[in-house]
């Protein structure tokens, strides 16, 4: 049988109230709205990542393709310029001049084909760049939203942690000097019973499980010695007998 001074038993309710507040803070810490927001934003960012990579890859590929197309056009133009310079110099015989004229005609046709291909690549690149800009804007918006949610989370966590630290100090003070056996029993019960190890007996009702004690159990509690630690027969919690004026409160 565990015994403890009645005053220690009543002080145990102060410890329980502080533990309950600490438990509420821990629950609040685990369930901050910002945490759910961040998780949702992470999911959306992950979903968008594939599109972002694909779009950037497509733009990079087309930029390389455009460089090649521009190089091809420039090579044909340079060849045509050199041929035209040969003709303009007037140093070619008739046969060579005719060959150069034929080549210039061929180069002109080739240049037209290459410039058309270049234009097609430019149009495709522009379309992909526009698409990439939209994806990057959406990504930047999600990143900004996540940073804002993380800032809100950090501020809320700092506030909760400061409150928890204060509660821990209050709890240490409230528990200081309490009967060791009483405190050990309370802590064990609290661990098994959802965080509530002790509850007041008010008007014949256990405030832990909110059930009325049957007449025989209530009579046994009232008949117990003041220093005897009594337990609720329904939930097993420590029942703290409070003065009549507190019970009526």
Indicate the topology.
Layout lengths: L5 H25 L2 H57 L4 H82 L4 H13 L5 E5 L2 E2 L4 E2 L2 H9 L6 E2 L6 E4 L2 H5 L1
Parallel strand pairs: 1-5
Antiparallel strand pairs: 1-2, 2-3, 4-5
Helix pairs in contact: 1-3, 2-3
Task: Walk me through the structure.
- This protein starts with 5 loop residues before the first helix and ends with a helix.
- α1 packs antiparallel against α3 (94-175) and α2 (33-89) runs antiparallel to α3 (94-175).
- The chain is an alpha+beta fold and 249 residues long.
- It is built from 6 helices and 5 strands.
Note the run of SSEs as H and E. Answer: HHHHEEEHEEH
Q: Report the structural category.
A: alpha+beta
Strand order, sheet with most strands: 3-2-1-5-4
Give the CA-CA distance, first to last residue: 30 Å
CATH architecture classification name of the largest domain: Orthogonal Bundle
Number of helices: 6
Explain briefly what this protein structure is.
The protein has helices at residues 6-30, 33-89, 94-175, 180-192, 215-223, 244-248; strands at residues 198-202, 205-206, 211-212, 230-231, 238-241. By secondary structure, it is an alpha+beta fold. It folds into 2 domains: 6-25 and 178-248, Helix Hairpins, CATH 1.10.287; 28-174, Helix Hairpins.
């Amino acid at each position: 049988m565990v015994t403890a001074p009645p005053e220690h038993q009543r002080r145990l309710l102060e410890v329980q109230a502080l533990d309950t507040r600490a438990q509420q803070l821990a629950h609040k810490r685990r369930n901050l709205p910002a945490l759910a927001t961040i998780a949702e934003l992470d999911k959306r960012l992950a979903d968008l990542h594939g599109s972002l990579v694909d779009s950037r890859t497509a733009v990079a590929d087309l930029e390389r393709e455009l460089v090649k197309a521009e190089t091809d056009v420039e090579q044909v133009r340079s060849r045509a310029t050199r041929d035209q310079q040969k003709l303009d110099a007037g140093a070619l015989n008739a046969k060579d001049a005719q060959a150069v004229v034929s080549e210039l005609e061929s180069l002109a046709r080739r240049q037209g084909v290459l410039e058309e291909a270049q234009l097609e690549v430019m149009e495709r690149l522009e379309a992909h760049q526009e698409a990439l800009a939209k994806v990057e804007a959406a990504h930047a918006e999600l990143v900004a939203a996540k940073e804002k949610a993380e800032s809100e989370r950090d501020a809320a966590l700092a506030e909760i942690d400061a409150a928890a630290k204060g509660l821990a100090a209050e709890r240490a003070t409230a528990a200081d000097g309490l009967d060791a056996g009483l405190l050990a029993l309370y802590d064990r019960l609290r661990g098994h019973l959802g965080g509530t190890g002790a509850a007041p007996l008010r008007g014949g009702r256990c405030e832990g499980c909110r059930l009325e004690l049957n007449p025989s159990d209530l009579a046994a509690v009232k008949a117990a010695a003041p220093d005897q630690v009594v337990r609720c027969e329904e939930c097993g919690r420590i029942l703290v007998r409070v003065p009549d004026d507190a019970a009526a409160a």
